[in-house]
Design a protein that fits this description.
This protein is mainly α. The chain contains six helices and no strands. The protein has one domain.
Length: 84
């Protein structure tokens, strides 16, 4: 099992929901939302360890929002703080 799985346990459901269920990468047809939702659900149901995949997807989503969509660092911080 990946150590990321333990770091990204139940406390990070809101991170997944914010960045993966409302993904700009999916919205712009770069990734398949059904596949991401299936991976996310399997992980949350503890049927499979997708911790590393989910972490990479979250990072890709944040990168996309910052460097393609032009989201400012402050906007991203507000979004993350709103999850707390």
């Amino acid at each position: 099992a990946s150590p990321i799985t333990y770091l990204l346990s139940d406390e990070f459901k809101s991170l997944y929901n914010t960045f993966l269920r409302n993904s700009r990468l999916v919205e712009n047809n770069y990734l398949d939302g059904k596949t991401i939702n299936a991976i996310l659900q399997e992980h949350l149901d503890k049927k499979a360890d997708h911790g590393q995949r989910l972490w990479l997807l979250c990072n890709s989503e944040i990168w996309y929002r910052m460097y393609i969509d032009g989201m400012k660092k402050e906007q991203l911080q507000e979004l993350l703080l709103g999850m707390a």
